[in-house]
Specification:
The strands form four sheets. Strands 1-2-3-13-5-15-4 form a seven-stranded mixed β-sheet, with helices on one face. The protein has 298 residues and is an alpha+beta fold. Helix content is 23%, strand content 23%. α1 (30-43) links the parallel β2 (17-20) and β3. It has helices at 30-43, 55-62, 105-110, 149-154, 158-164, 173-179, 187-192, 226-240; strands spanning 4-7, 17-20, 45-48, 88-89, 127-136, 144-148, 168-171, 196-199, 201-203, 210-212, 218-221, 246-249, 256-260, 264-268, 279-286. It has a domain at 4-159 and 244-286: 4-Layer Sandwich (Double-stranded beta-helix), CATH 3.60.130. The structure holds N-oxalylglycine and manganese (II) ion (MN).
Amino acid sequence: MPIETRPLLPNQPLFAAEMTGLDASKPLTPAEVAAFEASMDKHAVLVLHGQNMTDEQQLEFTKNFGPLQVGANTTLTPATMRLGGAFADVSNLDKNNKRLERDDRRRMEALGNRLWHSDATFRIVPARYSLLSGRIVTRNGGNTEFADMRAAYDALDEKTKAEIEDLVCEHSLIYSRAQLGFSDFTDEELHRMRPVLHKLVRTHPVTGRKSLLLSAHIGTIVGWPKPEALAFIRDLMEHATQPQFVYSHQWTQYDFVIWDNRTTMHRVRRFDDLNIVRDMRRTTTMSEGPTVEGQQAA
Ligand code: OGA
Ligand code: MN
């Protein structure tokens, strides 16, 4: 069956698309990898339905698209992880497949995904693709929303484009968690999660298109007073997440959704996570390099 894509939004033919004709549980040919990347460069978000696969198959598929991004800055240790270290466990389950309690610290951290963000921008080399497999999904809430940061950039007026062209932001997990009032960090964590720098305007290495690099992890703009920076970032966030830039994905079981973090933001919507199981497993690959050179890795 040939690989085909069909846009999911009538008014945004160049954003989110459904892809058919690809079995993600099987090894890909170089031609399939190239076709997939070309579709990602075009649409930024791809939805593949009916992809019932094992963790190993998801990992194999992921490795086609760059080095794995592993060991995100979380409080999980190998002893408390439900999934292998190459996975981001985006479920509401603990190691014994029990739902997280209301005040569990892991749940507090997971709530950060309700804020618009781009994955791993708290790292010097942020994420390229995120690949999210819906093993047990919810239909009452729990949609994942995506915003097209290329279209959002294009829609800015020329004065704003010029103003932001060379701006650099500080990103840290500490900032995104602080937005939700979570500030209970040890000195070791504060050190490990110290801010990294990213350009506010990012150019896609293949298409050459510019996009806004926004994320809940932003804590300030370098050289700006912090309140002025955060007020401006909030304005840009509001602009970039207007309905005309957004695709909302309602999950069906075994959907496999892949997005390019270099050109999109996303967030999960509220659902009854204390009573309903949602088992989502994410693998992630790394971008081609830092957006700001000269930073020392932790
Ligand atoms: C993620 C994420 C959203 C969701 O996996 O990076 O933000 O829908 N998840 O669970
Ligand atoms: Mn995310």
